[in-house]
Write a structure and sequence with these properties.
The chain is α+β, with helices and mostly antiparallel strands. It has three domains: about 100 residues, no CATH class; about 70 residues; about 50 residues. It is elongated, with a radius of gyration of 24 Å.
Length: about 240
C-alpha cells in the first residue's frame, strides 16, 4: 500500500537536500508513543547527527492561544529508512521500500533536469544572439542583453547546483557500495543480515560502544566485533 510521505527540499550549506518531515513518518508508522519522545529517543539511541542526518526547525505554535512553537524535524532519506526499519514491523518495511524507490526516481530525474537546463541555456543564448543581430532592436540591445545575461547566470547557477547534487549522489552511492562490500565480507559463521552489519558500522562510527551496539541489536558482542574487524580489514574506519 502506497503511503503519502511528501519529500521536502531542505536547504543546507548552499544545497537543497531531499528530506522527510519526521512527523509525517511518525504518523505513517502509527507509533503509540508521543511524537517528541519518539523522535528524541530515536536520535539518542542511534546516534543520528544534527545538521547532517536531520534538521530541526521551529514551526508554528500548537494552538491559536499561543504557547511554545512545535519543533519540526526534517530527516534525510537514509535516516528515515533506518528509523522505518528499526520499527521492526511490516509497515516500517513497506515505508523503507517506498523511500528506496523514491531515491531511485530522484536519481533518474536529476540527469533529465540537467539536460533540460542545458537545452534551455543554448536556446536562450541563441535568442540573445538573434536579438543582437536584429537592427530593429538596436535601441533596446543594452537592456535586453542585461536581462538575458541575468537569466543566463541564474540558469548556470541552477545547472552548477544540480551537477553538484549529481556528484554528491554518485559519491554517496560509491560509499554505500564500499560499505556493503566490506560488511558482506564478514565470516559466514556470524548470522547477521547485511542491513544489520551496515547498522553496526554506522553506530560505531557514531561513537557507540560495542557492548551498547550488541545490546541495541540483541546480538553478542563477539558478532559485533567480528563485523567491525571485517570492515576495518576492507579499509573502513570504524
Amino acid at each position: 500500500m502506497m503511503i503519502n510521505l511528501p519529500i521536502v527540499q531542505t536547504a543546507f550549506n548552499g544545497e537543497n537536500l531531499p528530506t522527510i518531515n519526521a512527523r509525517n513518518l511518525y504518523d505513517a508508522l502509527d507509533v503509540s508513543t508521543k511524537f517528541t519522545q519518539w523522535i528524541e529517543r530515536r536520535i539518542e539511541n542511534y546516534g543520528f547527527v544534527e545538521g547532517v542526518e536531520f534538521f530541526p526547525t521551529l514551526g508554528k505554535t500548537s494552538s491559536f492561544l499561543g504557547g511554545r512553537p512545535k519543533t519540526e524535524y526534517f530527516l534525510t532519506l537514509d535516516m528515515a529508512k533506518h528509523i522505518a526499519l528499526m520499527e521492526n514491523n511490516a509497515k516500517g518495511r513497506d515505508i523503507r521500500n517506498q523511500l528506496i524507490e523514491a531515491e531511485r526516481q530522484l536519481r533518474e530525474e536529476v540527469p533529465a533536469l540537467v539536460r533540460s537546463l542545458q537545452q534551455e541555456k543554448h536556446e536562450l543564448l541563441a535568442l540573445v544572439d538573434a536579438q543582437q543581430e536584429n537592427s530593429q532592436l538596436k535601441q533596446f540591445a543594452l537592456g535586453e542583453q542585461k536581462a538575458a545575461k541575468d537569466i543566463e547566470q541564474k540558469y548556470i547557477a541552477l545547472l552548477e547546483e544540480t551537477l553538484t547534487l549529481v556528484k554528491k549522489e554518485q559519491a554517496q552511492t560509491q560509499a554505500y557500495t564500499r560499505t556493503s562490500r566490506a560488511v558482506s565480507a564478514c565470516k559466514p559463521g556470524v548470522k547477521l543480515s547485511d542491513e544489520e552489519k551496515r547498522t553496526i558500522v554506522r553506530l560505531k562510527q557514531g561513537g557507540m560502544r560495542i557492548c551498547d551496539i550488541a545490546r541495541q541489536l540483541s546480538r553478542s558482542t563477539s558478532s559485533v566485533d567480528t563485523v567491525l574487524r571485517a570492515y576495518r580489514a576492507q579499509g573502513g574506519n570504524a
